[in-house]
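Hi everyone, sorry if this is the wrong subforum. Our group has a chain we'd like a structural model of before ordering constructs, and none of us has done structure prediction before. Sequence below.
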Amino acid sequence: MDDDSLAHELKISKSKLLEMYGMILDQLDAIDVDAEAWASTSVQAPILSVPGSEGAPIPTDHADDHLIGGALEMEHLPYQGLGMTSVASYSRSTSEFSQFSGSLQGLDPDRGHRKGRQFKVIYIPDPSRRCCSLSECERNLGYALRTITAKTYEKLEGALPGYIFRRPGGRSKAGLVKVYISEWLWVAARLSAVLDESMFLVSYMSWERFRDGILEFDKDVVAELSRQDCLLGGIDYTIDYRSSAAYGWKDVSDIERLATNLKTIRNVIMWPPARELKRAGWKFPVIADLAAIAESQVPSCPPVTTRLNTGDTIPQGTVLKRSQSDCSAHVIMPDAARMRTWSYLMSQAPAGEIWMAQQHVPFLAKLGEWRVYIVGGKIVQVVHTYRTGNGSWHGRQVQGYWSLDELQAKILSSDITPMEVINPDEGTTDQRNHAKEEFEAFTLDTWKHLVLTEKASASGPVSISIFCRLDIGIGMENGRLMYFVNEVERSLTTSLWMGSMPDGAHGILADTLAATLYDWLTGMMDPMHL
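Answer:
Right subforum, don't worry. Here is the predicted structure as C-alpha cells:
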C-alpha cells in the first residue's frame, strides 16, 4: 500500500455504497434493524479510589413511551465502575445505511462479493468491558441500545454472555428485541451483516476460553483459531491488561506465556497488532511522535510532557498520567495533593508502569475536546466531550465548527461555555465551511504524519491507517489559539461514544470500517502486496 492510498476515498452516499457493494437495499438485516440512539451522553469523572455509583433503574413498563420525543434521565456506569449521568432523547428513525441485503435482483452475480473472497473473522471481547447485569450495562458508556432480531440475540448471548442484555418490556415488532449491547460486539456482528456474510463470516469466542485454550494448547481452541483469517481482539496492551480481577490471570507469567503461545498460530492476522498496542500502551512514544510532528510538520501546541523516574521531583501544577491505563483511571490533577507522592504513585504501578508529568491545559477542563473517529483516512464521526461542574462527562455530536480566530475572539471577549464551542448558529456558509476545513485539515494532516511515522518505526503497516480516534484539544501559544492532539486511541476498547451519535451514524462508522478492513485484509493476503 503506498502512502497516498492511506487516505483513499470511501464514499458513503447511498448511491456510492450501492455501487461499492454491487447490490441494492432490500430486506432488513439481523443487525441494527431499528437503531436506537441518544443525543448526548455523560460519564462521571473517575476518582482512583471511588467505586462506581449506583443508578436509578429504567422503568420497563411502557418503556417505549420514553423513546418518543421527551428526555429520559438515566444513570450510566462507564467501563471501570465510574458513574455517569445522561439526558437522553431517543429516535425511532432508521438510517438507509443500516440495512444491507445480498439480493442482487438482476445485477451481475459476479458483483455479489466485494472482491470475491470471504474472510473468516473471530471476535474476542475484552473482559474489562463485560457487565454483570442489565442495570449495570444500562449505565455503561460502552453499551448502546439497539433493536435486533431474536435469532441474532440468542446467538450473541449464547456465545458471549455479559456483553449483551435484553431489555424487558416495551413494544417491539414480532421477531425483534431491544438489547443493550457492547459497542464493539455490535460492530463485530455488523461485519457479518454486510452483503449477507459474503465479505465476512464472523464467529465469537469468550476471553476465558481463548486465554485457557492458548495457555494449555487446547487442540480444539487452537484448531478453531487456525481456521480464521483474522482475530479481532486478544490482549489489549494499551490498558491495564495485567489486572487479575478483570483478566483472571493465575500468575503474572501467564501474560507473556499466552503471547508466546499465540505466535505459534502463524496463519492468523491479529488486528490490532499486539506489537503496535504494546508501544501505544506506554503512551510516551506516541506523545513524543506527536510533539515532533507539531514542531516540524503540522503547527500545533501539544502540552509539554516529561517522563518521571522514581524519586524525581514531581513538578507542581502538572497533570500526572500513567501508562497502560484508560478511562482516566490513572490521571491525577494538580490539586490532588495526597496522590502526588512517590509512595502513592508506586502503589498504582505494581508491574513497572511509568508515570508522566504533563503541562496542565486549562482549556481542556473548561471547553472540552473533540473525539474524532478516522476510518480508512476519512473522518466519519466527531463527538465533542467536556466535564461538567459536578465532575461528569457530557458528549454531543459535532455538526458545525467555529474557526480558531472566531473561538479566540469569543474566549477573549466573553465567558464562553463548552456548549457554545461547537455547532454555531450564525455566520455564512463560507465561514462555516472554512472552519470545518481548518479543523479537518489539521486533524487529517496530523493523522497522516503519525501513520507515516509509525510505519517507519514498525517497518510495515499500522492499524491507525484503518481505525483510530484522535482526541483534539485547543491551547494558546504565543497569543494564538491552536489545535493539538491530546491522545490517540486505536484498540477495540476505544469508546465509540455511540450514545452521542445520531441514529444511522453508528452504521456508517461500522460499514466504513468493514470496507476498510476488507481492503486491508485483501492486501495482507496478497503475496505481491507491498
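For your construct planning: The two ends are 6 Å apart (CA to CA). The mean pLDDT is 81.
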